[in-house]
Amino acid sequence: MNRNKVVLASFCILASAVVFTACKDKRSTGLEYARNMYDPIAPNPDQPVSTTNELLKSFKGQTAQTPPAHTSPVGFEKYDYPNTKEGYEAAGAALVNPLEATEKNLEAGKHYFKVFCSPCHGEKGDGQGHLVKIEKISGIPSYHGDAASSRGGLMKDLTAGKIYHTIMYGLNNMGSHASQLTPDERWKVVMYVQQLQKIQ
User: Which of 43, 46, 107, 153 is the most buried (most CB within 10 A)?
Assistant: First the structure.
């Protein structure tokens, strides 16, 4: 019986301490377990830095810094062609698909095309995607036949480099897909689009 009273008294004291600390400051959540798991050690890149830290004083009030010259982030692949008509033509002439045309790569390309491209371009690349059919977007050319590209030439004759450049930067109503697809995934989509170009 005494043990139950001790447990009950301990619980009441603990509960009142939590209520008291929570009520003292209206924004407080009360006592917290393992506080160091909530407060990050590293500075928040989106917030101004405190100048009390000697290292951060040299950051001029910013934690997110531009990388030093002649360096690249880990895993970053540089793309040397600018988002211009000249860059588009240069990419078309110079870039070739580095991936082997295997069944596995084509299947992956088909999957990415279906997810990212078919809502506008259609699953068969005929320019009759879902968004075209419900009239949310228009003017999507077909990859087959004599449909003209907006930058000249026929869609069925676009080179791998021109298709990759368009995925990288977007064109007209099409936005860039560089943030959604890795370079390998983009090349797989290019491979699949080139299969669609062969359909008459």
Answer: 43
Q: pLDDT of 5-64, one tens digit each?
A: 887 888 778 777 666 655 566 676 666 667 666 666 666 666 665 555 555 666 666 666
Whole-angstrom Cα distance, residue 181 to residue 167?
9
What is the Cα–Cα distance from 45 to 56, expressed in whole angstroms? 12
Short-list 122, 159, 165, 158, CA closest to 142? 122
Residue with tokens 């069925």: 156
Q: What tens digit of pLDDT does each residue of 136-165 get? A: 888 788 887 777 676 666 777 889 999 999
Handedness of CA 100, 104, 109, 110 (dihedral sign): positive
